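Figure 3 (text version): structure tokens given as input.
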């Protein structure tokens, strides 16, 4: 498969899908509370995507995934399947939303806090969000994917955390997962050269302990081998003529992005 360059019409559709995915994260925030089950969060998001947004939750039945969102709690790294476990005070939870609108995908995730997590947990989330920002800052025509991976890996490791290697960001558009693979580690000056019109996700998974992970017998849930905490943030990004646009930006992030530019 080759890397699709979006036409102006397609970019417009990507913007809409990205906006909708971001809105789901904003909508679900107040529901992420002590005592709620991840199944209930799945139901709330599913109903909102289908009935309010008139969009499609991309994970549902994707390669057999049984739910409409992914919920990854504490030492779960990614692809957690919503279930009947209740969130408790001190938990950190990633909610990963992918919607399809008018044939195009928007994919984004963030960490939510239940009550007040430990200082370590909050620091891990801060480092992971900063890792995503550090990667996004690199995106412009002429930059290379290895530059992004290198920036993320160097920052994360400087903070004594580790980058998960088994899962990566991805091109996105008409398909959920398109070329290229966007690694969150690597060497500068290597890999695909970015061009205006490319769309891809950056979605670093960062562990407080060692980088190694294992897959649970459910075939989806990925956890840290050493049971250390793990965090992830994800945005869908468009390469523009003079840099990038974050297609899944939330209102709460606007001030930070403006301050950086
Ligand atoms: N949203 C995830 C990603 O960022 C993929 C989830 S696949 C699923 O690429 F099947 F688990 F939903
Ligand atoms: Co993704
Ligand atoms: Co995702």
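Below: residues designed for each position.
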């Amino acid at each position: 498969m080759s890397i699709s360059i979006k036409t102006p019409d397609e970019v417009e559709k990507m913007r809409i899908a990205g906006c909708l995915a971001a809105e789901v994260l904003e909508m679900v925030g107040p529901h992420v509370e002590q005592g709620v089950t991840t199944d209930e969060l799945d139901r709330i998001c599913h109903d909102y995507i289908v009935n309010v947004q008139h969009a499609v939750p991309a994970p549902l039945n994707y390669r057999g995934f049984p739910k409409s969102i992914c919920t990854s709690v504490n030492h779960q790294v990614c692809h957690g399947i919503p279930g009947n476990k209740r969130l408790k005070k001190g938990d950190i939870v990633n909610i990963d939303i992918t919607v399809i609108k008018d044939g195009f995908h928007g994919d984004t995730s963030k960490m939510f806090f239940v009550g007040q997590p430990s200082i370590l947990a909050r620091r891990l989330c801060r480092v992971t969000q900063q890792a995503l920002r550090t990667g996004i800052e690199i995106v412009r025509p002429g930059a290379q994917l290895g530059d992004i991976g290198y920036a993320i890996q160097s920052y994360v490791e400087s903070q004594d955390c580790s980058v998960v290697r088994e899962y990566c960001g991805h091109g996105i558009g008409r398909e959920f997962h398109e070329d290229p693979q966007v690694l969150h580690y690597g060497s500068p000056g290597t890999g695909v050269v970015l061009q205006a019109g490319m769309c891809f996700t950056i979605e670093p998974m960062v562990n407080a302990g060692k980088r190694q992970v294992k897959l649970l017998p459910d075939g989806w849930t990925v956890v840290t081998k050493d049971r250390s905490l793990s965090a992830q943030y994800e945005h869908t990004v468009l390469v523009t003529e003079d840099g990038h646009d974050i297609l899944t930006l939330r209102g709460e992030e606007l001030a930070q992005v403006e301050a950086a530019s």
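Residues 8-28 form the longest helix (21 residues).
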